Amino acid sequence: MHRNESGRILTMALIAIVLAGGLGFLSLAAFRAGSTPQIAAEPAGGSIGRKTAVTVTVTEPARGLSRVLAELVQGDRVEKLAEKSYAPPPPWSFGGSGTGSETLTLDIGRDAIKGLKAGPATLRVTAEGAPAWLRHPAPAVKELTFQVRLTPPSLGVTSTFHFARQGGSEAVVYRVGDSSVRDGVQAGELLENFLSINRDLRKANAAALVELASKSKPQFLWSRPFLPMPNAKVMAPFAEARTYVYQGRAVDHQTHLGFDLAVTKAVAVPASNDGVVALARFFGTVVVDHGYGLQSLYAHLSSIDVKEGQEVKRGDTLGRSGDTGLAGGDHLHFSILLAGQPVNPQEWWDAHWIRDRVVRKLGGALRFED
Question: What is the model's pTM?
């Protein structure tokens, strides 16, 4: 009896140990969930332009991550930017390790997200830790507010008489628009910077104007001769060949594809004819669409008084003359564009030329008034 009693007690003890181990296993499997993940982002807000990189870091060192989701929310629209799922080790395992950290680099902006609109937008990041059978950790949610700015800021130099020379100093006073996020003055290799603007940027602008012309309205928006800038002196004519000299040698050649017109500083610049503002941005530039690929361009403006999409009438003020860009002094650069290509503005200023060369050939399609 003594031996049987001892065996029974040992058996019950073993059963109890097995039951305790099983209960412990079941408890771990049922309730050993990970902790709530931590989310950090850089930058933690600010502005979004054409392409803005945001770095998101998610950590959960206890049992690791199970899912990370990044979305951009604007109004009723929710755009998924990234989503990742992970396989954490089972809750009863203490030897393996899951994914304890994840870093996402998100490109957000107009180039990455089609149809993005100007205004506030929210970057929402949701992260989930490893679950157990009966317990799921609360997901971590972090929301960051950004301002979507799709229009480049305006820039106008308000000071005059700038004389930059190698090894010298100079002061410049300038004004930037409300959409500017960061501004400052940088100095570098003068010749390299000049050629980058005078040569490379000119080519890019020419291509942009051709693209802009493809969106011209398929109707005549004008009915009178184009208006030259009143009381202006011609400082440079159309198609003037220019050679740019640096330290005694020619470094660039360009053809001046417009008229440079000067009156006084910051004089009102009128719309040359009826139309719709197709562009009003960059370094003081306005383009007015007159229909069927005919457009007028106004550059070097110190300020802009119109917005893209705005209807204007002949003589309405578009802005003020200035010396933005590479202008050597306050004036208006005026161009007429046809299918994005510069043509001689003198023809479009001439009512007789318009009637002889355009109106008579259209059979009444263009109602023209001298």
Answer: 0.56
